[in-house]
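Take a look at the protein record below with the fold in mind.
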Amino acid sequence: MRFHVLTLFPAAFHDHLEYSMLAKALARDLVSIEVTDIRDYTNDQHHTADDYQFGGGHGMIMKADPVFEATEAALSGYSEDERVKIPIIFFTPQGEMLTQKLVEELAEAPALAMICAHYAGIDNRVPDFLATREISLGDFVLTGGELPAMALIDAVSRLVPGVIGSPENVTEDSISSGLLQHPLYTRPAEFRGMEVPDILLSGHHANIDKWRREQSLQRTLERRPDLLLTADFSPADFKYLRTLGYEPPSSTE
């Protein structure tokens, strides 16, 4: 997977890319990340990338021309057929919400280009005529698009084969499985009077799997009941959910 980041602050990515699984993925050429400084594509001696708003208003606006030119330069190494398959993402609170389903969709692309805005906003010709997807991390506002870009790079990279040691670590994660993940424990079995559930120490794998599934269902019901509307249930799942007082809509057995 190849990532192209267009930003006014390329140094913001340096530390993030030097640690943990992402650093190992880069070292093994499982992913590549190219960070382009938009200021390199400005046309004045001060490298001005922003300007006042037409019509008046508070705050400076990122100019369209350096963003277009930086993006076009970043993608210039691809053929025309390849470029049309590469999402050009603009991060904005007005975009579609980033979900695991969307992450999985984007992971199928040959590459991703990500535009990180700053200041009071960006010239609307960027989202209208350059970006092909507008994405939001949630209903809140950040100072720039760098953190959303890092989040998307991290989420998509986890789906690249070989980045995470075991494929099961990905498929069993919260949200990826359709439900929230069950509780996790490791040694010591007792810590400050807090004990690991006996079932996990029993060695009875069928019972452990049953307990984990039930814990996942219960945790999802308590914290994210909306996920239950689209999750796949077995008859045993239906039975357990009913003991918790939940009746899945349109359930069939």
Summary: The chain has two domains: 2-157, 175-253. The chain has a mean pLDDT of 92.
